[in-house]
């Protein structure tokens, strides 16, 4: 539910000085003992003083923003991505198994209570936004096209009560992006290898991670049993090679530095024939 916020009502009730909806709810949480285990009592109090009926949607949204901010996230994603002006980006959002058949959506705007729906998984794609839901991997992916301004977005899942959500920022830059890859989606073959080059402008890339799993920060390591080798000898290039690929290696990964992450999707296909493909940005080789 999304409603407009209201202001200038109810102040000084139960010793809580408030002038806007946000401060009413925040003060209620503080003055009445706050926390998730007190949520039912908070709603009861709101009903008693006449707030709940008039501003039910607003109260739900603001309580969600205040109370749920300290709860372990139920949606996992990157936090800040650099994009060239006019470009496109795909952002993966990992969710818990219990939300496999729930509606997923993208919300646009810096503040959660006032953000606007961009696209939902039960609605058709628009020209600017698209969304897909991989229920097996529990990842829904949102793609945003023709980006022209820096903004905050939210990956969210509808549920009874409070929707679960996490924000990320898209930093739109003119010229070269602060952190980018030449291809965001790459195909590879099982038993082969794939090389990804992460280019950075300022902050040095420090790690290669898999969404919902672990990261590699040294020259060698492994993620979910897949060997990873990192080469940072070339200036402003962080080269990652994953070898001994399996179909289970398919998924979303990202390069990360201090400020930014850039997601990369790798699809590992079953081996059907000997194939070798070379390009300036990606090398895929199959060994029989």
Verbal overview:
The protein is mainly beta and 288 residues long. The protein has three domains: 50 residues; 99 residues, Sandwich (Immunoglobulin-like); 107 residues, Immunoglobulins (Immunoglobulin-like). Helix content is 13%, strand content 39%. The protein is built from four helices and 21 strands. The strands form four sheets. Strands 10, 12, 15, 16, 17, 20 and 21 form a seven-stranded antiparallel sheet that branches.
Question: What features would you highlight for this structure?
Answer:
4 helices, Immunoglobulin-like, 7-stranded antiparallel beta sheet, mainly beta, 39% strand, 5-stranded mixed beta sheet, single chain, disordered C terminus, 3 domains
Ends: how far apart?
A: 55 Å
**Unreliable spans:** 1-49, 51-72, 278-288
DSSP E strands, number: 21
Mean pLDDT: 78
Using the coordinates above, name the CATH class of the largest domain: Mainly Beta
Tell me the number of helical segments per DSSP (H or I, 4 or more residues long).
Answer: 4
Please state the structural category: mainly beta
The proportion of strand residues reads: 35-45%
Rg result: 22 Å
User: How many structural domains are formed by the residues?
Assistant: 3
Residue share in helices?
10-25%
